[in-house]
Write a structure and sequence with these properties.
This protein has 444 residues and is mainly alpha-helical. It is 63% helix and 2% strand. This is O-antigen ligase family protein.
Length: 444
């Protein structure tokens, strides 16, 4: 059934995209909104690994770059977007050099195409904001819809079992028969990625405006609570921890009403955990293994650090982690049920993975790409240029930054696009409390 469902969904998603592109007269805004609505399906693999392992989003990005090549042209100026554009070019150059100078200089073009594809989306998103002041609110509705789809899919998975899924196989840590633990990955292959995606999207439902109807405000808050529960169901401790920390920081800068809402969320989640609600993964029981988990991760981190000491500046090459492990550290593997070996393709830490593959220059560039939108938003909020609504997007990124410490998740386009959207919402946040990107003193 799954073997038929996945190709069918891929064809439907591709048909929807091309239909919007053609029947909406090749207009940019409907196409970008369509991409956002289709986020749950963008990571579906279209070609096998020996043909590049391209995913659905890769094809969409190439089509967009070819059709909207004029909109891709960038106007330079003294602005945060120009600075970020320089960082993007720098990251692509560093990535290319890291591959060429490595001992595994293969698939250079394929890797760079995949890396560059996300920046096609970011450029066109900003272009839409400058052309239409209402695009930002339309994009927010689209992202919320994608998150709600992921939320509903996960709850259906809880109701009907893990056979209700989008992948023929799930990650090894999804089921632990010895401890009778189940972690629900939802639309993802790995439950940790599912937790990060849900946590990233959760704060969007706290972006409530005075103009919103009362029933809409209640609906958003209920959805936020359900997403917190779904993150718990995914069994991702790092995502849940990031969500709690970000929510605490967010509530400090908000009204008393928001603090009360935060307390309600905390009470609901804790009560569900303590009462042992049958569908929830036994996270409290998993805390008994925290020391063993830490020691295992620490061993991977130590060996990853030893690799960086040999390749400090340029790393071992983008996408070369698993190849390096197979050749130099072959003891880093998991033995699967069928007796085959699965070699690690990451050190259970997103920052270390980037540091190992791209070196210090690459990691610094990536951190600046994330950090500059946050710092710019904090500054604009501090001087009163923008309202506190921007804190929703800052909190979302903080949630992911904390969770990223335990697992490299941006291999999945859905999470990568969600991160990009949160940063884009910060960059294009309207000044003077006006719902218009045109009020920003930025040259796009």
């Amino acid at each position: 059934m799954i073997g038929v469902l996945i190709p069918l969904l891929t064809v439907l998603a591709f048909g929807t995209f091309t239909g919007i592109l053609v029947f909406r007269n090749f207009r940019l805004e409907p196409v970008i909104l369509c991409l956002i609505y289709l986020i749950p399906f963008l990571d579906m693999k279209v070609t096998p690994s020996y043909l590049g392992g391209f995913k659905l989003y890769d094809f969409f990005a190439v089509i967009c770059a070819l059709v909207f090549w004029k909109e891709m042209i960038f106007t330079w100026g003294y602005s945060i977007t120009s600075t970020l554009a320089v960082l993007v070019i720098t990251l692509i150059v560093i990535s290319g050099l890291s591959i060429v100078l490595s001992e595994f200089p293969h698939d250079l073009i394929i890797k760079l195409v995949k890396l560059s594809s996300i920046f096609v989306f970011t450029r066109l998103f900003i272009k839409c904001c400058t052309q239409n002041p209402n695009f930002r609110s339309d994009a927010l509705k689209a992202v919320r819809s994608a998150v709600v789809f992921a939320l509903c899919f996960l709850f259906f998975q809880v109701a009907f079992g893990l056979d209700f899924r989008l992948y023929s196989q799930l990650a090894e840590n999804t089921v632990d028969p010895a401890n009778e633990q189940f972690r629900y990955p939802g639309i993802f292959y790995d439950s940790q990625a599912s937790g990060q995606f849900l946590a990233l999207g959760s704060f969007l439902f706290l972006d409530i405006r005075k103009a919103d109807l009362r029933h809409a405000k209640v609906t958003y808050f209920v959805l936020f609570i359900l997403i917190c529960i779904a993150t718990l169901l995914a069994g991702s401790r790092s995502a849940l921890g990031g969500l709690i920390i970000a929510l605490t920081l967010y509530s400090i800068f908000k009204s008393t009403q928001t603090r009360v809402a935060t307390a309600v969320v905390a009470i609901v989640v804790v009560c569900l955990s303590l009462t042992g609600f049958s569908s929830l993964p036994k996270i409290l029981k998993r805390t008994e293994n925290l020391d063993a988990d830490y020691q295992f991760r620490k061993s991977l981190w130590t060996e990853a650090v030893s690799i960086t000491e040999k390749h400090r500046l340029m790393g071992i090459g983008l996408g070369n982690y698993q190849d390096y492990i197979v050749k130099h550290l072959p003891h880093q593997y998991l033995e699967l049920e069928d007796g085959s070996y699965l070699y690690f393709d990451q050190p259970e830490n997103g920052y270390l993975k980037i540091l190992v593959e791209l070196g210090a220059f690459g990691l610094a560039t990536c951190l600046l790409l994330i950090g500059l939108p946050i710092m710019n938003s904090v500054y604009r909020y501090a001087i009163g240029e923008i309202d506190s609504g921007v804190l929703v997007h800052i909190a979302s990124i903080i949630t992911w930054l904390i969770a990223f410490n335990t697992v490299y998740s941006i291999y999945d386009y859905r999470i990568l696009i969600m991160i990009a959207i949160q940063c884009l919402f910060m960059i294009t946040y309207p000044s003077n409390h006006k719902e218009s990107c045109q009020t920003l003193s930025i040259k796009y």
